[in-house]
Amino acid sequence: MSRYRLPALLVITLAVGLGLAAPAAASASAPSPTTVASSPSPTGPTAGPCAYTPTPDEPAARPVGLPPDPRHTPARGKVRVVLRTNLGAIPLVLDRAEAPCTVQSFLHLTRSRFYDRTICHRLTTYPTLSVLQCGDPSGTGEGGPGYRYRDELPTDLPPAPTDPTGARKVYARGVLAMANAGPDTNGSQFFLVYANSALRPNYTIFGEITQPGLRTLDRIAAGGVTPTPEDPAPLDGPPALRTEIRVAHRG
């Protein structure tokens, strides 16, 4: 089972990257930083506000350093990133105002080619959880970048109509969010929401998927989950249409 997961349905916990146990289950450039925090110790966090913290017990699935951690983290403007997959492009728009530390990390991983030649390892097709999860070079749902950082959680999501308790919120179609393994354990895994999903607001939203990207995502979702002898019609697992991020880049 993936380390990063999202809860499935209303009671099942899924895996992250999402932090959903893996979900588990969404362009003006910002000013350049003026001051950069001091370099971290081998085991200590960066000195800036994002406090990217090495995880020596969970080494990087692919070698990569810690992100820059400027004292004045860019917190305005949007950045376009394209995931070029074997099934079509998935353009994204990252929102620095919504989650500055998350955007800073995602761009660092993109520049470092951390996401190139990786697969999206998980597709969920539950009525209340419809996401594609990516971002683990190991392809297992267990891998990350060798560091973690704090949550930047949404506070204004509408309640999910399927949850009478009001605890779960709507992660709407088109949302781009981080998977995690619990509070403040964001790393490299992320999920793409292709249909409105009901989740506790425990996953950082840091951007959105454009309409061309949603068309690609819909194609992947339509292929369903890879069947197994034990479950010929699974709702959660590797996508039947193998989805490989060939390159991720700003664009």
TrEMBL record:
<comment type="function">
    <text>PPIases accelerate the folding of proteins. It catalyzes the cis-trans isomerization of proline imidic peptide bonds in oligopeptides.</text>
</comment>
<keyword id="KW-0732">Signal</keyword>
<dbReference type="Pfam" id="PF00160">
    <property type="entry name" value="Pro_isomerase"/>
</dbReference>
<feature type="domain" description="PPIase cyclophilin-type">
    <location>
        <begin position="85"/>
        <end position="233"/>
    </location>
</feature>
<dbReference type="InterPro" id="IPR002130">
    <property type="entry name" value="Cyclophilin-type_PPIase_dom"/>
</dbReference>
<comment type="similarity">
    <text>Belongs to the cyclophilin-type PPIase family.</text>
</comment>
<dbReference type="GO" id="GO:0003755">
    <property type="term" value="F:peptidyl-prolyl cis-trans isomerase activity"/>
</dbReference>
<feature type="region of interest" description="Disordered">
    <location>
        <begin position="28"/>
        <end position="77"/>
    </location>
</feature>
<dbReference type="InterPro" id="IPR044666">
    <property type="entry name" value="Cyclophilin_A-like"/>
</dbReference>
<dbReference type="InterPro" id="IPR029000">
    <property type="entry name" value="Cyclophilin-like_dom_sf"/>
</dbReference>
<keyword id="KW-0697">Rotamase</keyword>
<feature type="signal peptide">
    <location>
        <begin position="1"/>
        <end position="21"/>
    </location>
</feature>
<feature type="compositionally biased region" description="Low complexity">
    <location>
        <begin position="28"/>
        <end position="49"/>
    </location>
</feature>
<protein>
    <recommendedName>
        <fullName>Peptidyl-prolyl cis-trans isomerase</fullName>
        <ecNumber>5.2.1.8</ecNumber>
    </recommendedName>
</protein>
<keyword id="KW-0413">Isomerase</keyword>
